[in-house]
Structure formats: C-alpha cells, structure tokens
Amino acid sequence: MASQGLEKEQSVQQLIAQSRNKKGKKIVEKLMPLILIITALISVLTTIGIVFTLIFETFEFFQRVSITDYLFGTEWLPFSGSEPLYGVLPLVLGTLKVSVIAACVAVPLGIAAAIYLSEYASDKTRRIVKPILEVLAGVPTIVYGFFALTFVTPLLQQLIPSLKIFNALSPGIVVGIMILPMIASLSEDAMSSVPNSIREGALALGATKLEVSLKVVLPAALSGIVSSVVLAVSRAIGETMIVSLAGGATPTFEFNVTGSIQTMTAYIVQVSSGDAGYGTTIYYSIYAVGFTLFIFTLLMNLLAQYISKRFREEY
C-alpha cells in the first residue's frame, strides 16, 4: 500500500511537471513568431532608412548641381576653387575598370577551381582545399590593399615599366583574388547539385571526364554559376579599401589602366575623412555618388535573381 501511494505521488508530480513544461513551450511558441517578425522588421526598416537617407540627401545635391551635368559630365573636380565640376562618369569608369579586371581574373580561376572541386577532387581533398580557399574571403580588405600597393604593383612594374604607383591594374587583380572564393564556392555548390545520373549517362555514352565537366555539368549548373559571378562582380563594384590604397585619387575619363584612377567608393572615403564641411555641395555629393553606387549594386542583384530564375534547371 505504501509503495502504491508513493507511485501515485510520483505520477502526480510528473503530471504537474509535464503541464508546466507544456505551458512553457506554449509561451515560447507564442513569443518566437513575435521575436522573429521584430528582427525581420528591424532589417527591413534599416534598409528603408538607408534608402530614404540617400534619396533625400541626393535630392539636396541636385538642387545645387544639374542632374544632366552630373550624369553626362566627363570631369570630376569637386575641390576646384574657381568652378567645381561634378561629372560622375570618371568615377563610374574607374569603378568599371577595376571591376572588369577583377572579373577577368576571378571568373576563369574561380570556375576552374569549382570544376576541380566538384568533378575531380576526392572527398578528403575537397574537405581540405575548400576551407583553405574560403579563408581568402576572411582576409581584411585593408590587408589586400597594402598587398596590392607593396607587392603586386612593384611586381607589375617589372613587366610594365610605364605602370604608375597608383593604377587600375593592380587593385583590379587583387580585387579579383578577393572575390575568387565567392565564385569558386558558389559555383562548386551549383555543380555538386547536378545529379550523378546525368554524369553517369554521359560517361556511359563514351564521354571523357573533361567532356562531362565542360559539356554536361557546366551547362546544367549555368544558372548558379552565372549568379555567383554577378554577385561577385557586384561585390567588386562596392569594394573600398583596396582601390583607396592602390588605385589613387585621380578621376580621369580614359581607358588607360596603368595610370591613377578614383572609384566611387574611394571618393566617398576621401570626402568622409574630413575634406569637406557639413552642408557643403561636396558633402552632399557623397550621397549622390553613394546613391549611384546603390543603383549599380541593386541592378546587379536583380540581374542575378533574373538569371537564376530564367536558367534554373529542375531535376
């Protein structure tokens, strides 16, 4: 009888504990959606706040400078004492020169690395090489900048004697090295998602390993590869410290890559470091340039999404 009483007492205690746990779980289940929606709203509201800040300050800039002169002008001389000029094309061209050079470096090397990791490397090799490759993405960009200025530029000057200390070629190459892990990692993920049955079918028809990689797997993973390239190039467009340290501060509207340049991000850094007073036209110009850069990156991201949806393969 005593043992039965103890068992009943224990079962009652267990039921009480279970009911308390259920109440706690119900409270957590009710709170979690609220917490998640608050965090989502914070990110959305932050984005909206940044966009509206750019729009309002850019509007103030265009109250002082003609939008036609800004969009189509070929001279950027905001610090000119007599007559400042705000033609953004030199900054845009400097940004595009660095981005194109970076893409020429990163795209072939990144896709080649992705093909090796996906199609040729063993599981053990992939587990070792891929994390090492992705370590490049964790290197601070200011370190890349000093690497471009103190190592890559002197090395290139031995090959190109006319190359100046500040140029577009050196930071373009280093930015390409910086975005290479993004292309390699995302492209490798896209290739690895291609079913093995497609590879086995191609091999059964007599295709070689290289033919399977280039003519079967690569086209099948095209949407993911192109999206990774577009995202990486948008990252190159927004790069700041590398081009600020190794590119120079001379906005010129010419296609020469051996001379000093200035990108949109480098100009924002220059003005933000204290070269212009608050409320001046130069001060508002950084918002106009920032808004232009925002439009560039937004278009690149929209292009990546369109390509991903347009050429996505379903298996």
Automatic annotation (TrEMBL):
TM region positions: 31-56, 98-120, 132-153, 165-184, 216-237, 282-304
Topology relative to the membrane: Multi-pass membrane protein
Intracellular or extracellular location(s): Cell membrane; Membrane
SUPFAM superfamilies in the record: MetI-like (SSF161098)
Gene3D superfamilies: MetI-like (1.10.3720.10)
Residue ranges of every copy of the ABC transmembrane type-1 domain listed in the record: 92-304
Gene Ontology terms: cellular component: plasma membrane
GO terms of biological process kind: phosphate ion transport
Molecular function per GO: phosphate transmembrane transporter activity
Top-level division of the source organism's lineage: Bacteria
Pfam families, A to Z: BPD_transp_1
Record keywords, A-Z: Cell membrane, Membrane, Phosphate transport, Transmembrane, Transmembrane helix, Transport
Reported function: Part of the binding-protein-dependent transport system for phosphate; probably responsible for the translocation of the substrate across the membrane.
NCBIfam families membership: phosphate_pstC
Annotated family: Belongs to the binding-protein-dependent transport system permease family. CysTW subfamily.
Name of the featured protein: Phosphate transport system permease protein
Organism of origin: Ureibacillus xyleni
